[in-house]
Amino acid sequence: MGSTGWRGTLGTYHEVIGLTGPLLPVVSFLGRLPTATVQFGSVLLVARTSGSLADAGLTGGALAIGQVACGPLVGRLADRHGQRTVVLAFSLTNALAIAALVVGALAGLPAPLLALLGAVAGASVPLIGPLARTRLVALARRSGAPDATVGTALSFESALDEVSFVLGPALVGLAAVLAHPAHALGVAAFLVATCGTGFALHPTARTTAARYGPVATSGERRSNRTPGPAPRRSRSLHPLCAALGLQGAMFGACQAGITALTDRLGQPEQAGLVYAAMGVMSAVAGLSMAAVPARIALRARWRAATAAAFALSLPLLWTDGLAALYAVVIVLGVAYAPHLITVFALTERAVPKQRLAEAMALGTSALVGGQALAVAVTGRLAESYGPTAAFAAASTAAALAAAIAWTARPATYTQRTESTFRARVPGSDTRA
Known about the structure:
The structure is a single chain. This protein is mainly α and 432 residues long. It is built from 16 helices and no strands. The longest helix has 32 residues.
């Protein structure tokens, strides 16, 4: 890319930051960091305090299940009531839940109670990442920005997600080595309380006030504050969520394979660094997506990203050294963020704006659920059959994601679709 192209890309990012101001990206990044910290940190904490990996896995699994199950609900509440109230309530609840988990683990509570506390901590995650993505898209659309700017906004948010999911586990690991995992979780509770509150109270939260509101006549709308029915969830979300679930499975399988291989090589401490290297390259690739010409359609990008993920994952099957592992996963990271960015861009176009937060949360839940399930399954495969088995599972997930990308036809939600819905649902016209 020439210097003119880079200047254009940087200019687009400057335009995106101009939509929010410089404070919101910082607050949203610090507010979403606890999500990445708590998942890994809960496992290390319970393993340290109980001495049982089984209890640690149970707590971490319960936390993931809580987040997957309640994530779409958080998005739906944000669509109905606006982000300010929902994020504020969930941020404070999540901070208390994390603190309770730390206190319970240090007090030596039984495994079932720790799992319950983990489930509450997962269920109360305020989902600042998906909601920040929703808010930025809403700001861009409201300002009349072109699709290229919306795409850059999604690239920017995905890069923040990637960096948070690299930095979070690294900070937990550092705390575990230098002191105790409880310190990292204590910081996570503080961040979600303070930065979650800051994200909720930021002036841009007004752009995501209740998305669908009063129904019936205009006179009735002035006196009736009960929200009316939202447009139905698009069926186009099904293949998109499946693709995100499979990408999560690829994440989880790679994580299990990397852990098993570094352990076999006698350098288990390298596992986190290898995974971080892949995440950093993914973030760089995500930021570079803003330079992709607008003439390349989203479906073409989706197909290219999944095909690349599958092809670039195959060398893992023959990787047996640390240097080679670093090289392969760094190259593989190039395909990750572009796929996430493209699928979320397709999601933004496939749903009405009244359900965008729910759709983004649903996609994120699919990603987290796929990763948690894959870690549990492929971890056992790696123990029994070696790291190659886990890497084979990652390639299989990538192949299935590519098959979806090449066969699915996600539709674009239009005003005509919304008009059809209104015609079918009496009283659902919300025009002023």
